[in-house]
Write a structure and sequence with these properties.
The complex is a heterodimer of chains A (144) and B (426). Chain A has 144 residues and is mainly alpha-helical. Chain A has a domain of 99 residues: ACP-like (Non-ribosomal Peptide Synthetase Peptidyl Carrier Protein, Chain A, Orthogonal Bundle), CATH 1.10.1200.10. Helices cover 52% and strands 0% of the residues of chain A. Chain B has 426 residues and is α/β, with parallel strands linked by helices. Chain B has one domain: Thiolase/Chalcone synthase (Peroxisomal Thiolase, Chain A, domain 1, 3-Layer(aba) Sandwich). Helices cover 36% and strands 19% of the residues of chain B. In chain B, 58% of the residues are buried. The chains are: A mainly alpha (144), B alpha/beta (426). Chains A and B meet through helix 1, helix 2 and helix 4 of A and helix 4 and helix 6 of B.
Chain lengths: 144, 426
């Protein structure tokens, strides 16, 4: 057990391997379906790396607490992982209000768009997906 | 109303000797030594060679707690949760009762999870303060053991973690005993957890005289009260016990390991690390514990000494024991073993010193010995030095009656803090 290994928790190490193995997102956020699908895929893989049970049909309207049994700390841990993966930083206020997968996806896309300096053009599906009761874009690619 | 009596109905043990009650019974009877060479410490430049590592995977194999939950609570709390789960199951207490406010949870730990604090600090000082994980504070906080156990089992009464270095879980059990005896709680999960890691080891090594210098043989690494002793061997582990008001336990037909009959605690202001050479405060603490139990020194059959294997600590404790049991008057140079008085032993030669968990582990050992009729010996012990009072050293494991005498368990901690528990058979 080396020094770093001592302090690396099992899943954190797993996540590190995953991060190295998976290429960073290459598709611009302006490609609506692709970007959304990419974030959703990433959430799926991060949840799996966190040793949480991921339903086969992870949907945008999947609820973090009720459907995935994520605690508030798990949600923050997921945010950390996504921030690392997409090289962005989410707003603390956004994180505090996450209820559905769609909330997380939108926050990521919004920050990607901001980071890309595209003049503030809202990320695809942004406004309409903010509410957990919005139907959560169940028709979005990859959500079924 | 007569004072309530307090019995122990469940034990959860995770130590370098193994996992669970049965493996500890076997190990204690045969005098197994659970210490091993810590190669990773050697690679990192530490001089101390041996440690008491636990097999967390063995304990995890038996649990109903989700892997993610155990992972994110960190090793310190996970040990407490796993031992707590075992103690609850062992006791047969209705899990629904745990949610009642009459159920207390009093744990002890020497330090929070140092690796969690280190990992957070490493990120901060690398300019990555925003990368610190949310679990950092929940693992590093002093109360991590009680916090996670309370959440895992839905404890409804008071819950907190006491810290008094190597006496932490003895104080925790003593406090829980007092809560039940006074009627404040009906039952309590009590004990402690301590995480073994290289950061703690390096911190102890920095004291220069605390750790064993043995480099070759695990069986010689920790030699309490022996003239060849060179220091303590650090260990990890957890020992949690279910304490219940005796009448409740008997009414529900619970299996009883034994009874906690006395407790006392005191302090001496002398040196932060070194014990008071005379052992006077420790002797007063032992006497007070016996008085609390309503028994005299002659009622004690066995002392599970603090006996860590340090040169100064063991000598001071031997002086205190000689004082309490009236065995210190033999002229120097007479090395005949005392033929009277209680058997004096320390199980730290087998387990190493699990610091804040030691009291929980050793109280459990005392109760197992009381219930199963044996006393665990000190297989490495040959003889004490001439300056040390000659006591009735427990060299080999002895079989004995289950109902003769009480056991005294000593725990002393940095800062001059002392805790003594008196245990009786079922």
């Amino acid at each position: 057990m080396s020094g770093p290994a001592l302090v690396a928790t099992g899943w954190a190490a797993t996540r590190g391997v995953l991060l190295q193995a998976m290429a960073p997102p290459s598709e611009p956020a302006s490609a609506p379906g692709g970007a959304r699908e990419q974030v959703l895929d990433r959430i799926r893989s991060e949840l799996a790396a966190m040793q949480l049970e991921v339903p086969e049909t992870l949907r945008l309207d999947t609820r973090l607490a009720d459907d995935l049994s994520l605690t508030s700390l798990d949600a923050v841990d997921l945010v950390l992982a996504l921030e690392d993966a997409f090289e962005i930083e989410l707003e603390d206020d956004d994180v505090a209000s996450f209820e559905t997968v769609a909330d997380v996806v939108d926050a990521v896309l919004r920050q990607q768009a901001a980071a890309a300096g595209d003049g503030g053009e809202p990320a695809p599906g942004d406004a309409e997906n903010r509410s957990p009761d919005s139907g959560a874009e169940s028709s979005a690619p990859g959500s079924g | 109303m007569a004072e309530r009596r307090v019995v122990v109905t469940g034990i959860g043990l995770l130590t370098p000797l193994g996992w669970g009650v049965q493996s500890h019974l076997d190990a204690l009877r045969r005098g197994a030594v659970g210490l091993r060479a810590m190669d990773e410490w050697t690679r990192l430049g530490l001089r101390c060679r041996f440690g008491g590592a636990i097999d967390l995977a063995a304990a995890r194999a038996d649990t109903a707690i989700a892997p993610r939950r155990l992972e994110t609570m960190g090793t310190l709390a996970a040990q407490a949760v796993l031992a707590g789960e075992a103690a609850i199951a062992d006791s047969g207490v209705d899990p629904g009762l745990l949610r009642h406010e009459s159920t207390a949870l009093i744990l002890g730990a020497g330090v929070g999870s140092m690796p969690a604090i280190y990992e957070g600090a490493r990120l901060v000082f690398a300019g990555k303060a925003r990368r610190v994980r949310p679990f950092s504070i929940l693992q590093g906080m002093s109360s991590a053991p009680s916090a996670h156990v309370a959440q895992a089992f839905g404890i409804g009464g008071r819950s907190y973690t006491l810290a008094s270095a190597c006496a932490s879980s003895a104080h925790a059990i003593g406090h829980a005993f007092e809560l039940i005896r006074s009627g404040t709680a009906a039952r309590a999960l009590a004990g402690g957890s301590e995480e073994l890691n290289v950061i703690v080891a390096a911190s102890f090594e920095a004291l220069r005289t605390a750790l064993s210098s043995e480099q070759d043989e695990a069986t010689r690494a920790c030699l309490p009260f022996d003239a060849r002793r060179s220091g303590l061997v650090l260990a990890g582990g957890a020992g949690l016990l279910m304490l219940e008001e005796r009448r409740d336990a008997l009414e529900r037909g619970a299996r009883v390991y034994g009874e906690i009959v006395g407790f006392a605690a005191n302090s001496q202001a002398d040196d932060l690390v070194l014990p008071e050479a005379s052992g006077e405060a420790a002797a007063r603490c032992m006497r007070a514990a016996l008085a609390s139990a309503g028994v005299g020194p002659s009622a004690v059959r066995y002392v599970n000494a603090h006996g860590t294997g340090t040169v100064a600590g063991d000598l001071a404790e031997a002086r205190a024991l000689a004082e309490v049991f009236g065995l210190g008057d033999d002229p120097a140079g007479d090395r005949d073993e005392a033929a009277t008085g209680p058997w004096i032993g320390s199980t730290k030669g087998l387990t190493g010193h699990a610091l804040g968990a030691a009291g929980g582990i050793e109280t459990s050992f005392c109760l197992l010995m009381l219930r199963h009729g044996f006393l665990a010996g000190m297989p490495g012990f040959e003889r004490s030095e001439d300056e040390m009072p000659e006591l009735r050293w427990l060299r080999r494991t002895r079989e004995c009656e289950t109902d003769a005498g009480v056991h005294l368990s000593n725990s002393f901690g940095f800062g001059g803090t002392n805790a003594c528990l008196v245990l009786a058979g079922p």
